[in-house]
Amino acid sequence: IPVAPFVLTVFGATGDLARRKLLPALFHRDFAGQLPPEATIIGVARGAMTREEFVSLARAAIVEHVPASETAGPELDRFLTRLNYVTADAEGDDGWADLAAAISPCADRIQVYYLATAPHLFGPICERLGNFGLARNDSRVVIEKPIGKDLASAIRLNAAIGKVFPEERVYRIDHYLGKETVQNLMALRFANALFEPLWNAAHIDHVQITVAESLGVEERAGYYDTAGAMRDMVQNHLLQLLCLVAMEPPPSLDADAVRDEKLKVLRALKPIDERNAASLTVRGQYRAGASAGGAVSGYLDELGSNLSQTETFVALKAEVANWRWAGVPFYLRIGKRLATRVSEIVVGFRPVPHSAFSEQVGQIRPNRLVIRLQPDEGVKLWLMIKDPGPGGIRLSHVPLDMSFAEAFKVRNPDAYERLILDVVRGNQTLFMRRDEVEAAWRWVDPILEAWRNLNEQPRPYTAGTWGPSASIALIERDGRTWQEDG
Ligand code: BG6
């Protein structure tokens, strides 16, 4: 079913995000018949460029990122007719009258402004959208992380946007929330009666969340070095995943119902600061090593500097200090240039209280629910099962195994396809509210400060491994191990 007619203005339309994600996502949705004939996309950037030049840039980006089976037919040309281009200066007034003129024929449509630019331009762009009369009382604005680099800067940024757009029209993207498997967390927890009665400290021993990447920072080293893994991934994606695992069942999927519950989790996180950061956190930085494609450089070589202490890996032990989760460790781990690319949530249940089986028939291992977010998306529930055979009982640990690819023979849409259309639909459920972003910084800031004050150097790890050995010690000290095999 097509969404309502809209005009989407993308600032930073020639940049990396627009080319890799936004244009391909919009094309995919158009190909699937979800864009109405009146959907218009206006690219805005600082560089002088004709509409034809922008269209050929968009064509190249789509051909590069979308399978040839979709780009070979007439659909791509039809999609490109929706595009327009305006040159405008985000920090000056040049070009804004042209933008207003380009938007004005679409006055009857839903208006969306997507700020795919560097964050320091969010404030100036919103201000000009206001000054030039482009922010109507129903237009929406979309921004993406990094939303600040600490609590103070996030508050300033949110305030600058809030001067022009009220909160119910601000869409803060965390693209992890748009991933099919992340949305499935809510289905798994709240559309099944099986898990919820066990979903608490009485039955769950611990939770592990791993987001491992095999790639390094490569050409993003400039940005990455100002952020590091904590700001780049933990403050947003990992904490959002933790919230979806730990939150109370919301009364509905209404945006504020879900976001209220996530906020409570963020506020319940036990503080980590100078007193306990050394024992609860590990930061690492990769050195040269090997990945599947062969030898790879270390972080400092990619950056071209020997001085950086930026972390490319973080492992930490968090706790949600509330009635449901008291005492249950949430081990989080994220890093670049790790052994493989895998994002996974492992819920480790407590062992059975008593075994009726003798040790000879095999050890009873605790149940484990493994939610594989990517790749090979799926859900596995590890159970103890009797080995078939006439010779008496022998026990095995075997998964009930659901693979998305096998169960649903459809393409998994990219997160941006879902999220952009949700903006047009006016559905904020999968977007972060201002207070959530700020609560996440409120927890992260003292950790960053502790690292600074303790002069915690990142521990070196070899590219292609599972990170510094200290991260293994972090969990093994508690008598547990990271699960790397599903
Ligand atoms: C981005 C981070 O938000 O997420 C990147 O800035 C990271 O550093 C990326 O590589 C990972 O996203 P995905 O969807 O590939 O898991």
Automatic annotation (TrEMBL):
EC number: 1.1.1.49
Binding annotation for NADP(+): G12, A13, T14, G15, D16, L17, A18, R19, R46, K145
GO biological process: glucose metabolic process; pentose-phosphate shunt, oxidative branch
One cellular component term from this protein's GO annotations in UniProt: cytosol
Reactions accelerated catalytically: D-glucose 6-phosphate + NADP(+) = 6-phospho-D-glucono-1,5-lactone + NADPH + H(+)
Domain Glucose-6-phosphate dehydrogenase C-terminal positions: 186-483
Record GO terms (molecular function): glucose-6-phosphate dehydrogenase activity; NADP binding
Residues in Glucose-6-phosphate dehydrogenase NAD-binding domain copies: 10-184
UniProt keywords, alphabetically: Carbohydrate metabolism, Glucose metabolism, NADP, Oxidoreductase
Record: residues binding substrate: H175, K179, E213, D232, K336
Pathway the protein contributes to: Carbohydrate degradation; pentose phosphate pathway; D-ribulose 5-phosphate from D-glucose 6-phosphate (oxidative stage): step 1/3
Active-site residue numbers: H237
PANTHER family registered for this protein in UniProt: GLUCOSE-6-PHOSPHATE 1-DEHYDROGENASE, GLUCOSE-6-PHOSPHATE 1-DEHYDROGENASE G6PD
Biological role: Catalyzes the oxidation of glucose 6-phosphate to 6-phosphogluconolactone.
Family designation: Belongs to the glucose-6-phosphate dehydrogenase family.
Name of protein: Glucose-6-phosphate 1-dehydrogenase
